[in-house]
Design brief:
The chain is of the alpha/beta class. It has one domain. Strands 1, 2, 3, 4 and 5 form a 5-stranded mixed sheet that branches. It is elongated, with a radius of gyration of 22 Å. About 10% of the residues have low confidence.
């Protein structure tokens, strides 16, 4: 239950500058989702818990992670024009890649019926938790799209300041996204949360 975010560099966008006025900026959002699994095994809830604690950080490369949602933003095919003496975005694709990392219980069939029920309930809530991280990232992608449409650069500077301002603004938005994701994790980490209760139930199952 952790979130990782990477923001692709925006340098060099002004190289696509054109020299005619155009209609309002157009931007698109493309979302690609992937899933990866790491194997776990066990015949009790405690054994499954230990397997996740050991295998999650190795597979996901994040401390204490038993599942994670990694997000990456890329800015594709940027096109610029000059309009009223400013460099503005004509066209841009914001690509959001979401990768979900989950544990996969390999010998589930050997577990007791109560253990399998506890696992399935916990796993369903774990997926809901990570998919909420994905929805938060999707909302952020819309913010990125709107922000890119608002930005402009100075023709006299070869529009290089567009890239600089973009980097600054995107870092600020990235920080806001990280805080929003962290706030959701803090809410879910409470003992009274559904996922915490289901995890406890799993660990107590035999």
């Amino acid at each position: 239950m952790a979130n990782a975010l990477r923001l692709a560099a925006v340098g060099g966008l002004a190289a696509f500058l054109a020299a005619q006025a155009v209609p309002a900026a157009n931007a698109r959002i493309v979302v690609q989702e992937k899933i990866s699994y790491y194997p776990i095994s066990g015949r009790t809830g405690v054994e499954l818990g230990k397997a996740m604690i050991a295998g999650g950080p190795r597979a996901i490369h994040m401390r204490h992670a038993i599942a994670a949602t990694a997000t990456r933003f890329d800015f594709l095919d940027p096109k610029f024009v000059t309009e009223k003496g400013r460099c503005v975005v004509k066209d841009l694709t914001v690509k959001l890649t979401i990768t979900y990392h989950y544990p996969k219980w390999g010998n589930e069939g050997s577990g007791s019926a109560p253990l399998r029920r506890a696992w399935r309930a916990f796993y369903a809530e774990l997926k809901r938790h990570e998919q909420t991280h994905g929805r938060i990232a999707r909302k952020y992608a819309s913010r990125v799209e709107r922000e890119m449409k608002r930005m402009s650069g100075t023709v006299a500077f070869g529009c290089n300041d567009f890239g600089n301002w973009t980097q600054i603004r995107m870092k600020a938005l990235s920080a806001r996204l990280k805080e929003e994701q962290a706030a959701f994790d803090r809410l879910e980490d409470r003992k009274a949360s559904k996922i915490s209760r289901l995890q406890t139930s799993l660990l107590q199952s035999r």
